[in-house]
Specification:
Blueprint (H helix, E strand, L loop, with lengths): L2 H12 L5 E3 L2 E6 L2 E9 L6 E9 L16 E4 L8 H10 L8 H22 L3 H8 L8 E2 L1 H11 L15
Antiparallel strand pairs: 1-2, 2-3, 3-4, 4-5, 5-6
Helix pairs in contact: 1-3, 2-3, 4-5
């Protein structure tokens, strides 16, 4: 499978969910939240990474999100925080275009990972409330999160996520 075919697997799967593409990035806007799937090529060999993220466009003026490195929340699909080890063992080789694999098999593995893990994860983060829930200390979730996003959550929900970092959840 070449890169064009590889990218088309993502495009064919994500398009019915409302995702558009620009370059290596697929994005969907739900209100003011852009959810993003970004394909990143490794500097070494044919390995690709599937970056998942979001960007909150508070003013609603953007037609598309900024480049992936400017997103408010970042996570890799192949991270142990998103996908179980058994699925990672299948996904990681499928993301390396130098690993011999039939195109149909690679397509099935990629599509399954998008269907079972990427889209549900991004759907859960498509609203400010969903993001706040994901970032709540009780959830103990992990992702690269900007201070700007934490400030947006604080303004919208009144909850200061930074004040709870490193502290145990309040008892009920």
């Amino acid at each position: 499978m070449n890169y064009k075919q590889f990218k088309s697997v993502f495009s064919n799967f994500l398009s019915p969910f409302g995702y558009k593409s620009t370059g290596n990035m697929f994005f969907r806007r739900t209100g003011e939240v852009f959810t993003i799937v970004d394909l990143q090529k490794s500097e070494f060999g044919g390995q690709y990474y599937v970056n998942l993220g979001l960007f909150v466009d508070e003013g609603g003026a953007l037609a598309q999100p900024p480049p992936f490195y400017k997103t408010h929340l970042k996570q890799r699909l192949e991270s142990k925080f998103i996908i179980p080890q058994s699925a990672r063992n299948t996904l990681v080789p499928a993301l390396d275009l130098e690993v011999p694999m039939a195109a149909a098999e690679r397509s099935v593995v990629l599509t399954k990972a998008l269907e079972q893990y990427a889209v549900p994860y991004l759907d859960s983060l498509s609203t400010i409330e969903g993001i706040a829930d994901f970032l709540s200390p009780e959830k103990c979730n992990f992702a690269g999160v900007t201070v700007a996003l934490r400030e947006i959550i604080k303004r919208r929900t009144g909850v200061d996520q930074l004040a709870t970092v490193g502290k145990p959840p309040a008892s009920k």
